[in-house]
Design a protein that fits this description.
The complex is a heterodimer of chains A (about 525) and B (about 675). With about 525 residues, chain A is mainly beta. Chain A has three helices and 33 strands. Among the domains of chain B are: about 80 residues, no CATH class; about 100 residues, Cytochrome c-like domain (Cytochrome Bc1 Complex, Chain D, domain 2); about 110 residues, Cytochrome c-like domain (Cytochrome Bc1 Complex, Chain D, domain 2, Orthogonal Bundle). In chain B, a hairpin with a 4-residue loop joins strand 10 and strand 11. Classes of the chains: A mainly beta (about 525), B alpha+beta (about 675).
């Protein structure tokens, strides 16, 4: 073939390629990405995991504008059996979501060409996605759960799978630098009391959209779900424990925690000491509030009322955002103009009633007409397609060559007085404990507390750690459960032993830093011979 | 033809060579040295290497085998004239101190960079006149009758009086005060005549001035770097707040001082210590209540910097000085948002609201003083002591945050309290805020903002906390006006508790590479780059353009001035000290080894050879005994000394921390000689 022919062929291929690629135009203001779930419960569709509860078979994401109605909505997750959790990217052109491909589910749904989301004629880009009323279960294919994170384009087209995580992945959120965070694996739905020690704990991972191996960010027995990225660059998530139990039973405890984007500096954010409740889907607003859904224990966890805390004082400001709103809420998201998108049940007391999308402002205690309400679908989530995420980046302090980190406590005698109270003054020894993969606790080692209450220890990285404060007789005065961890090379400090939240340290030189850190692993092999011995 | 041309070229070259040789023979040593250095520089830059003799010389002088970061200029800097801080810079219309006339119709604004004071019509919000005041006018105080305006001239070490009675701003008299006067306030006590108190920042004292005639009647010592001045309601007692805290030892918490001065008896009546608090730049008395408010930065320099979250390094607050002399430090930050660099503070005449400008956060915080009082009334002493550490407490009394333009620092209120004026220093503007709605109602434009000037852009980055995690602090928080806070910090990059580091002034830094106490950073770009973001900012690093601007700004900072502007001659003691500094032998004729002479390492004109040395100061947790040789320009203003700040004064360098003459041969010096040496050093 001559050179001219080669050039002609290449040019032709380029032209074809560019013509096939969907053009991505900036969506007009007010455009939304809406997750629609089939409105009717399907026979035989028992949820096997959390996402099946939230996004039943047939769930999909559509791009729609409220002024145009759902008739002109475009399905942007074609080729998938179910999809949800859209997260718009920083460029405003692509979005992440969780989805499951056809044929990879335990049962596959067969459907006739159906109706559009609004009940009209099918839109051309909606092919391959079933209309809910025409669907039925027809065969059992594979027992494996395979929810994965996908990248889709606002213009439509076939989404691209970004993860291949055993056990599935869920709840993606963008991070700076083309990375995203997600939770994995997807917890299974098991009857209460049937949780097993072997069940994996959902944890947070991060991955680049260009590929690679996911990096784990959270450790220990506490599960980590519902990550969202704050404007200051931290990841806010719901910590759930015990994570091995089926979710949201009477024993379930949830609270909000924050970490840096490399998993360092795990910090209690809000809700740790509130009455038992199930917290889900935290979202930061531009006005300094964190909204989240709160439901009573025992609730399936898909719905709740909208509550909030202030970034300014998250432990002293929890309140119900719309006291007059009694309907269950599936999701709440912010728009760029300060208004909110909330997916609410249409009727107050009918769980069977569908879920529709409402828009309202914080000044409007009760939403008016539904913004989008399809008779055949539940609008369970909606995010603005023009509100791109804004957050600060951060250089990682993790040193992958290290297998340990250093923990400095400024004063183990300083406590929030819950529990043992003033007795902590008698604390003389610190025992570092680690929770093993099996769930059992193992002692790492012990070290003496300096007279000013400080101690400095070297501990293994990327494992759940706990701290016991002991008196001279070895009795436990104070116990911090294994809810924190250190990343490799991380230097971590705490003000006290279970100290009040959001307090700064005193300006004093801790005695512990005048010496090298105590290696807890070595201390385990050679513990102090007597209570009076020095570390 | 060709032969003739070649011959002509040879003749011309030979002639030029002959002229050059003769010029070289007649040239002064200094000129020949300069040319040699340039040739050496050229060879090094071309990678041609140097003769073995020169390399041996450089190894000997630098003490380093690896000459990668060593050039002839380490020792042979020709002149400081070429350095950035010696070059003229663009003068912007940055607003300084402000004063509102009693009738509320005029606002006077100091323009320190332009040596002017602007008069603003507050109805039209436009500048209607400018008056020239030489010497960097900084602080303003208006006489109660509104007929005289008193101006501190920071670069002139004087206070000027402008006569406003004739419809202009005519400087009619002036008086010399201490070094670098900044804050000023005036008051009348009973039937006594008007009096002024002036904070002299660099001489660590304050001046009491009478008005008719304008003269200094008393000068009294204050805390370190006095900055803000206020008067009690009755006008007898003055409070002077200091910017810098002083520490009694490396591991001891620092404290700054509020000096209370009785203007009638001309006595200091109280020196109030604010523990671990510093950088107070203003002070205000609460009308109708016996309280004084002071903005402050609560510093935590003794705690290893393992994180910056939760105010680990510092947080901002408001000091409440009670009549009994105790200070309750109240936070103004929030759990997840910080308002760095609190500066200007004003209180309305009703005593119900205080306004506090956060220069790093571009915000004015509004404090409801009734609510603050209520909290103070119910809190016990222990709770009050810990109040500054509670990041969720400010919600009890902070009732508003007013966003502003770049770097708000000075505040003024209209007499009826209805309008708040905020100097947006790096926007060259004054923002006008309605105090009822807390909304912007106008802006007085003084200049064009200067964002085309890389030095100004760099200053913006330097003073802006937005690049730090949650806006916790800015570069300025540790380097006020480019100088330093005088504290020692424990960075955790090389291990918790290791390598304590004394903060160093950025003034006069240009040309003094390498940077850091370990001398590992060859340039400011490296110093302020990703490592800085990782260790301190905990966010994304500055990008290339930002780094270039930041470097331009830092290099534009001139060395600290430690002598009074009028002191142009050396005293006898200083001259003796100079000879000691450059001595090559002891008084008994013993030769001082070259490597142990002051002037070898601290070589003029920057007084550094820009190399590292071991002077026997390694501490128990230091990983090395080799440290960067600091320059000595402005050394008198940068205590404490040595890499970990262990020497509280220059005297301690050769007394308490004498290291067997490793840090220069000085053991032969008498007490008088040491004093002479210190006297000389303080002139640099």
């Amino acid at each position: 073939m001559t050179l001219a022919r080669w050039v002609a062929v290449c040019l032709a291929l380029l032209a074809i390629g560019s013509g096939c690629r969907p053009t991505v135009e900036a969506p007009k203001p007010g455009t939304l990405l809406v997750t629609q779930a089939p409105g009717k419960v399907l026979p035989g569709a028992e949820a096997g995991d959390w996402l099946e509860l939230r996004y039943p078979l047939g769930s999909r994401i559509v791009r729609a504008h409220p002024d145009e109605g759902l008739a002109l909505a475009v399905v942007v997750t074609e080729g998938l059996q179910a999809a949800g959790s859209p997260a718009l990217g920083p460029d405003g052109k692509v979005f992440l979501f969780v989805g499951r491909r056809v044929g990879e589910r335990a049962m596959v749904m067969n459907h006739a060409p159906g109706k559009t989301p609004g009940g009209g004629t099918p839109h051309s880009t909606a092919g391959g996605t079933p209309a809910a009323t025409e669907s039925r279960w027809v065969e059992k294919d594979s027992p494996a759960s395979d929810w994965q994170i996908y990248r889709g384009s606002l213009a439509g087209g076939r989404p691209e799978a970004l993860t291949a995580v055993p056990g599935g992945a869920m709840e993606p959120a963008w991070l700076p630098g083309g990375r995203f965070v997600f939770s994995a694996p997807v917890p299974r739905c098991l009857p209460e009391g049937q949780g097993t020690e072997a069940a994996p704990v959902p944890a947070l991972y991060t991955l680049s959209v260009t590929g690679g191996v996911p990096t784990r960010l959270t450790f220990g027995p506490m599960g980590a779900i519902d990550p969202t990225v704050l404007a200051d660059g931290r990841i806010l998530f719901v910590g759930i424990s015990p994570a091995r139990e089926p979710a949201f039973t009477g024993k379930t405890k949830t609270a909000l925690f924050a970490i840096n984007n490399d998993g360092t500096e795990i910090t209690a954010f809000a809700g740790q000491h509130d009455d038992p409740a199930v917290l889900r889907r935290p979202r930061e607003l531009d006005d300094g509030r964190i909204l989240f859904l709160a439901a009573g224990v025992g609730d399936p966890g898909q719905e709740g009322r909208i509550e909030q805390v202030l970034m300014a004082r998250p432990f002293r400001s929890r309140s119900v955002t719309f006291p007059a709103l009694a309907r269950g809420c599936r999701s709440v998201e912010a728009e760029e103009n300060g208004s909110l998108l909330a997916c609410l049940r249409r009727a107050t007391n009918a769980r069977a009633a569908g879920v529709a999308l409402f828009r309202f402002t914080t000044e409007t205690p009760v939403p008016g007409e539904a913004l989008m309400d399809s008779p055949d679908w539940d609008e369970v989530e909606a995010v603005s397609a023009t509100r791109t995420p804004r957050f600060t980046g951060r250089l990682s302090t993790v040193d992958p060559s290290r297998g340990d980190g250093s923990l400095l406590c400024l004063n183990a005698h300083f406590t929030d007085q819950r529990g043992s109270g003033p007795d902590v003054e008698r604390g003389t020894t610190i025992r570092m404990v680690q929770q093993l993969e099996t769930g059992t606790m193992a002692t790492l080692g012990e070290t003496r507390v300096h007279p000013d209450g400080s101690f400095l220890v070297k501990v293994p990285a990327d494992v759940g750690l706990g701290v016991d404060l002991l008196d001279d007789q070895g009795a436990v005065l104070r116990r911090c459960p294994p809810v924190f961890w250190l990343r490799p090379g991380e230097n971590r400090s705490c003000v006290g032993c279970h100290e009040p939240h959001n307090v700064c340290p005193e300006n004093a030189r801790p005695l512990a830093v005048l010496q090298a850190p105590v290696d807890t692993l070595r201390a385990r092999l050679d513990p102090p011979s007597s209570p009076g011995s020095s570390p | 033809m060709m032969k003739r041309l070649t011959l002509a070229v040879v003749v011309v070259l030979a002639g030029a060579g002959l002229v050059g040789w003769r010029w070289w023979e007649r040239a002064e040593d200094e000129t020949r040295q300069r040319i040699r250095i340039r040739v050496m520089d050229f060879r090094l830059s071309m990678g041609w290497g140097l003769p073995a003799r020169d390399l041996a010389h450089m190894r000997k002088r630098s003490g380093l085998d690896d000459l990668a970061n060593v050039s002839c200029r380490n020792c042979h800097l020709e002149s400081t004239n070429a350095l950035a801080w010696a070059q003229p810079r663009v003068r912007h219309a940055r607003p300084g101190g402000m004063a509102v006339t009693p009738d509320g119709r005029r606002l006077y604004v100091a323009l320190p960079e332009q040596d002017e004071v602007a008069e603003v019509d507050l109805e039209r919000l436009v500048v209607i006149a400018r008056g020239r005041v030489a010497g960097q006018p900084t602080g303003l105080a208006l006489a109660p009758d509104g007929l005289s305006l008193f101006v501190t001239c920071r670069a002139g070490d004087r206070v000027a009086r402008l006569d406003l009675a004739r419809g202009g701003m005519l400087e009619v008299e002036s008086v010399n005060v201490g070094i670098q006067p900044v804050g000023i306030a005036c008051a009348v006590f009973g039937t006594n005549p008007l009096r002024l108190v002036v904070a002299n920042m660099t001489s660590d004292d304050a001046s009491l001035l009478s008005i008719q005639p304008l003269r200094e009647t008393a000068r009294f010592s204050t805390g370190r770097e006095p900055y803000g001045v206020g008067f009690s309601e009755e006008g007898q007692s003055a409070q002077i707040v200091s910017r810098l805290a002083v520490s009694q030892g490396v591991h001891q918490p620092p404290s700054s001082e509020i000096t209370v001065f009785d203007t009638l008896t001309q006595r200091v009546t109280r020196r109030v210590r604010m523990d671990s608090a510093h950088l107070s730049e203003s002070v205000a008395v609460v009308p109708g209540r016996p309280r004084v408010l002071v903005p402050l930065v609560r510093v935590r320099n003794l705690v290893p910097i393992t994180q910056v979250a939760r105010g680990w390094v510092m947080s901002s607050g408001l000091g409440v000085l009670e009549p009994d002399g105790t200070v309750v430090q109240m936070p103004i930050d929030e759990a997840n948002r910080y308002f760095a660099d609190p500066g200007g503070l004003v209180i309305d005449t009703s005593g119900r609201r205080a306004y506090l400008a956060s220069g790093g956060g571009d915000v004015v915080t509004v404090v409801a003083l009734d609510q603050l009082d209520r909290w103070l009334a119910q809190a016990d002493d222990a709770t009050k002591r810990r109040a500054i550490h509670d990041l969720e407490l400010s919600g009890e009394y902070v009732v508003g945050r007013i966003p502003t333009g770049r770097n708000p620092r000075h505040l003024a209120l209209s007499p009826d309290g209805s309008r708040l004026f905020v100097s947006e220093c790096l926007d060259d503007a004054v923002l006008v805020v309605d105090t009822r709605s807390l909304k912007h109602v106008g802006r007085v434009v003084l200049g064009e903002g200067g964002m085309k000037d890389p030095v100004r852009r760099g200053e913006r980055l330097f003073t802006w906390a937005g690049k730090t995690f949650q806006g916790q602090f800015s570069c300025r928080s540790c380097h006020p006006d480019g100088h330093f806070d005088g504290l020692t910090y424990d960075f955790d990059g090389d291990g918790i508790g290791d390598n304590l580091l004394d903060n160093r002034s950025l003034l006069g830094l240009a040309g003094t590479w390498p940077f850091k106490w370990n001398g590992k950073n060859p340039s400011l770009n490296v110093q302020c780059g990703p490592r800085f973001a990782k260790v301190l900012m905990r966010t994304d690093p500055f990008d290339g353009e930002q780094l270039a601007d930041l470097t331009r700004y830092v290099e534009s900072l001139a060395p600290a001035r430690t002598r009074h502007i009028a002191d142009t001659e050396w005293t006898v003691s200083q001259e003796r000290g100079r000879r000691l500094f450059f001595a090559t032998q002891t008084p008994d004729g013993t030769t001082i080894p070259e490597e142990r002479r002051c002037s070898t390492c601290h070589r003029p004109p920057l007084y550094t050879n820009r190399s590292k040395s071991s002077v026997g100061t390694r501490g128990p947790r230091d990983v090395s005994d080799v440290f960067d040789t600091p320059h000595l320009l402005g050394i008198g203003a940068s205590a404490p000394y040595l890499h970990d700040g262990r020497a509280k004064s220059l005297e301690e360098l050769w007394t308490v921390h004498q290291t067997n003459d490793l840090h220069g041969v000085s053991s032969y010096m008498s007490k008088q000689q040491l004093n002479d040496l210190v006297d000389f050093l303080k002139t640099l």
